[in-house]
Design brief:
globular; about 35% helix; 6 strands; alpha+beta
Length: about 240
């Protein structure tokens, strides 16, 4: 042992410092102001978007470090692939699609478009189903820009190898769609955006499509008992 730790050394959790780190992380993430209107992420999880707009709720504490890791990766890739590193800039900025009526923010938009993701999954994807949420988001960007190809870059933080060791590893994928499928994709996006507009006017979220199943649960959604998602929510038993 290079250093012998004296018996007098004590280890005590510092919750004040933890709160400072969390608050500073939230402050940094919130620096990028969200433009008014519906965004690509709202199309993916419309009921969550409805309640967030209705109640103006802040991001949950547990999600701040998760978002922070992703934003730092975005800043690194942008800085490494282009000239200069600016940790205050973590995507290409928002653009508005007149055709779709939504804002969208691809992580990379220099010739190709690309989306950067971090994942805590232990296994790399075996099919599109394993990365469907990432692909859905990328498809919105592709529809907005009339593209049939794009890149998906994922940093797997805990990928297991053949010896069951875990380490961060990159995986990069080319995502493509048939040109004939673009009109249908745009129609779906437009339908959800119009449904969100009506929901805000009427105050009724029930006509909206359900959100992704993996975030639609009492443990992962603070709007669970307000939304009461059909087929998923049950009356609490006492």
């Amino acid at each position: 042992m290079a250093i012998s730790i004296p018996d007098s050394v004590k280890l005590k959790r510092n919750k004040t410092a933890e709160k400072l780190l969390l608050d500073k992380s939230r402050e940094w993430l919130d620096k990028q102001e969200r433009t008014d209107g519906w965004h690509a992420s709202d199309i993916l999880n419309p009921r969550k978007a409805f309640f967030q707009r209705l109640l103006n709720t802040p991001t949950e504490d547990r999600k701040i470090p998760i978002f922070l890791v992703g934003k730092v990766l975005h800043a690194f890739v942008l800085g490494a692939m282009a000239e200069g590193v600016d940790l205050g800039k973590t995507d290409e900025g928002s653009s508005f699609s007149q055709e779709l009526g939504i804002w969208y923010s691809p992580d990379w938009d220099k010739g190709d478009i690309a989306e950067f993701k971090t994942s805590r999954a232990f296994k790399e994807p075996e099919s599109i189903d394993d990365v469907s949420s990432y692909v859905e988001q990328l498809l919105i960007y592709m529809a907005a820009k009339d593209r049939t190809d794009a890149e998906l870059w994922v940093l797997y933080l805990n990928l297991k190898d053949a010896k069951r060791r875990t380490s961060p590893e990159f995986r990069a994928y080319r995502v493509s769609i048939a040109p004939s499928d673009l009109p249908s994709l745009k129609e779906q996006i437009g339908f959800t955006r119009e449904a969100l507009d009506r929901a805000v006017i009427t105050g009724d979220h029930t006509p909206l499509p359900l959100c992704w199943k993996f975030i639609c649960s009492p443990d992962h959604c603070s709007f669970w008992d307000r939304c009461k998602p059909e087929g998923r929510w049950q009356e609490p038993t006492h």
